[in-house]
Fold:
Amino acid sequence: MRQSRTSRWMDIMAEMLIAVTMLLAVCMALAGMRPSSSAQRYREAMENYQARQWPQAYETLAALADSGDAPAARVAALMARQGPELFGQRFDVSPERLARWDRTMRGRETVLPIPSNAQQVALAGRAAVAIEHAPLITGTPERAALQH
Structure:
């Protein structure tokens, strides 16, 4: 039996629709498997931390610290340095990795400019005036009340 043009066209379209649907399903599956954002991973690590799931928290925080996340580096370094005292266990970290985390923390911190000599003199003068006008309170509040 010979197919009409219309039925052939419908068969081709059905096959294309199936192929496109399969392609979309694969893309959606792959998109669902991608790693979550660093903010989400940090939240999950801190939830593990609060739940006292130290190894899971440390693993995620260390990976985030390695990728340059300063808050994660701060917590991971604390856990590595204070592990036995605070968490009852050691967390393995090489001195080089710990030094990288320290640089990550320092690199993200705000550095305040050093005031010029004139600014330092002005600040010192304001501080001296504030101290001069501050009430002198010694001892207990009752004794301070007697001095006035």
